[in-house]
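Last lecture ended with a question: if I hand you only a sequence, what can you say about the shape of the protein? Today we answer it with a concrete record. The protein is Cucumopine synthase C-terminal helical bundle domain-containing protein. Below, first the input exactly as provided, then the predicted structure, then a couple of comments.
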Amino acid sequence: MRQIEIEWVQPGITVTADLNEERNPRLADLLWNELLPYNSLQNHALVSGNHLYHLVPHHQLVYTRAEYKEDRTKSPDGTVFLSQLQHLAVKYGPLSEYLPAAPVGHVVPEDVEALRAAGRACWEAAWSSKQVIEVRVRRKGEDVRNFVLPRTAPVDSPAVQKLVEEIHDEVARVWIDPPQEIVAMHEGRIASRAGSYDQYFSTLVFLNGEVRPLGYSALNGLVTMSRTTDISLTDLLRITPMLIKTPAEFLGYTGLNTLWDFTQRVLETLPGVETRDEYFALINALALYANVLNTWNLHFFPWRAGADHAYATV
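The predicted structure:
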């Protein structure tokens, strides 16, 4: 039986999970052979219920299809899932989201209570304290102290490679440490003063509404198409600006200047791209950057406003 450890550094909680080798062998093998070990910023679900998830820094997860999915509301506590949203997720209590998910393992029974404690700590961090919680995932028994953000294979174009490396370095810089642009936005330090009638709460709402689909849908979708379809490079180059320019430009106005700068430079570089590998390297780098910005925004968003919108007691 292959086992992994999931460690939440700041609460000081580690659990062991058995990998399921039967229902999703392709995903289980991917996790074991390609993805581990890694670290990430831990997020807590904000809609589905008692659920933890985090961004996995490997592009293969975006386009590797599951062989089996199930209604996660019926999955036992401790079930570990992998998602094409580039997430590893763990259920630790009741869920309302019945959308199908791909299980790859289960926290061992003796660690489920520790998992629930980790879940409560992560909810407190998301809801109010804003404590940064680092999660580390590794094979059981491995002694991993230094985590390095993986790089994509180098490409022949010097211009493309230079930009990919620059974006990668920025992703590595903010992988566990908060991006100052996100911090500034959540403190109301926005140069454009975006937000009608001199308030910035609505700007934070729109930030969340734009950066999430830019990464998850537009950029990850382009990554998937470049790796799993026969769509031509010409067509990929044609549709890319249509999908990413407008949201990235808006996000630049609201304060994410680095994202908008990278997006403009990617769009300026695309006409000189000659291979699918060059295209993939560029779009994958920008996708991971957009997605890590999303994780930080979800962490810092003032979710305590939800206290004013509690469901009526039945």
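Comments.
1. The chain is about 45% helix and 20% strand.
2. The radius of gyration is 20 Å.
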